[in-house]
């Protein structure tokens, strides 16, 4: 039995509409209490960024509290989209979003979160229950909302009995995008195909990250699934969607993924141009460039195919898949190198704790943990010192033909290699430090650092070191 899609009725005041091509935009105001059904039924799957509490939501709630009459003129409100809709009496429209990845709340996630928290706080105050004060992501809020939904209903019943109480009568601007003709299949498909670009453009004023758009297109789906299977704890710490919580930024993983991805056979982008691998030092110094090039790679028709008609794409290239299978192992290897590097550097005759950058990084730091697995360590290290050594792991990888397909794989088990040989590699690599004045920025941005580390691994593999 197909899953029934949620329907929401929007009651507009002061509405108007515009139609251009296959898209109709209905604009107007709705009273805050009518947002309750929107919060009940929708999430932020279609919004490139998730929402979380902070200065933005605080300012929105302060504006509602201080001057609700002017609030609709201070905010863009909420942008909604639905490929299915029905016009009802009394200026009401019922929407039934079909594809949650591209329909629903396209923009205004922080407004929806702030107003939802405002309503929930009022309802809980009326009941004599305090609203938890901790920072809340959208998911945390929705869990709290659902847990206390009966209290919201009790509060609404009280407001109906007190017509002079206008606590939730302030207006919120609403824009609703719908297909010009919902009965015309071609019109609906054209409407859906435009939604992601509209969503991205609307979010540009808040500097929409490339990662947010890549996530919407499904470019992280395979990496996320593989990481969940390989190391669920690390997977939970990655912020796959902007503002969705997570101590590790997805671009950190994508940068590491370019180590095996650099070994794949060339592919061409949508314009027929070869997608070049990123230079090694960009893995440390230009993670935004790594992410942009990753998006270009994943948009290639030689790598992913469009699924359905909602702009999401699915990986089908076995070589890229194999590179991802290697990539998800790199965070744990990174952390092992991070943990062991200070000791091995000292074994090489250095005095790691006396390096100025190391001293500054470790001063007054109570918590000292490795970046990905959050394991506690004795000494924190600047990333510029570690990145070349992690890149050097590429010496342990190869592009081999298996069952007629090129795949990226390990020549030997990497953790076993590191446990047996990392000290020798570090001794060889440490020679770059004096050349770069022991400056992690210079080391991390110097192409020679990566060549030196890679050579250390290769010579160890060859039995020279």
UniProtKB/TrEMBL annotation:
Protein name listed in UniProt: AIPR protein
Source organism: Neobittarella massiliensis (ex Bilen et al. 2018)
Taxonomic lineage of the native organism: Bacteria, Bacillati, Bacillota, Clostridia, Eubacteriales
